[in-house]
Amino acid sequence: MKIAVYPGSFDPITNGHIDIIQRSRHLFDKVIVAVAHNPEKKAWFTVDERLELLKETLKDYPNVTCDSFSGLTVAYARKVGASALIRGLRAISDFENEFMMALMNRNIAPELETVFLMTSTEYTFLSSSAVKELVLFGGPVSSLVPPVVAEALARKAKERFNSEGGDKE
User: Fold this and answer.
1) Whole-angstrom Cα distance, residue 63 to residue 4?
2) Which residues are catalytic?
3) Can you list the alpha helix ranges (DSSP code H) found in the chain?
4) Are the C-beta atoms of 60 and 18 separated by less than 8 Å?
5) What sign does the CA torsion over 97, 98, 101, 107 have?
6) Which residues are CB-neighbours of 7 under 8 A, at least 6 positions away?
7) What is the 8-class DSSP label of residue 123?
């Protein structure tokens, strides 16, 4: 069985991520979408919340599972028996960092291949960071994320607004 791991922060999952997952699941027998715990990033959602959003969003894909991990991605991939890591590329600007990470991963775990998939054209501008910023300023995100994620983002934005001294309606 060919297993691939698609690691990321997924804070939150976007339609761009889903595009990569949909295409990956046709290339591998099993795709594990794995939320990486990265204490350096200031996430809106906890790891458990992100995992729940992933599970709800991806529940109709029988060969896709969701998990979380901390530590090295290659260690996690070895643990689950993966032969590949999936990485999405939106633009040339993504390539340099992803290329360096792939070379580092190959140095540590030569048995793992990194598979780069170009995001579909309609998602080249899309990032989790841009979605969160749009939500904070009241912009529409329903075409950028699944409905369950849009609802969760609205709740988080309201919590953030209230905790920063905004209206307490």
Assistant:
1) 11
2) 17, 41, 90, 128
3) 15-24, 47-58, 73-79, 92-108, 128-136, 147-163
4) no
5) negative
6) 34, 36, 69, 73, 76, 85
7) G
Whether the Cβ atoms of residue 10 and residue 54 lie closer than 8 Å to each other: yes
What pLDDT, in 10s, does the model give residues 42-93?
899 999 999 999 999 999 999 999 999 999 999 999 999 999 999 999 887 7
The total number of residues written for the chain in this structure? 169
Tokens found for residue 96 = 């340099």
Contact residues for 75 (Cβ-Cβ < 8 A; gap 6+): none
Quick: pLDDT tens for 101-119.
Answer: 999 999 999 999 999 999 9
The amino acid that residue 57 corresponds to is: T
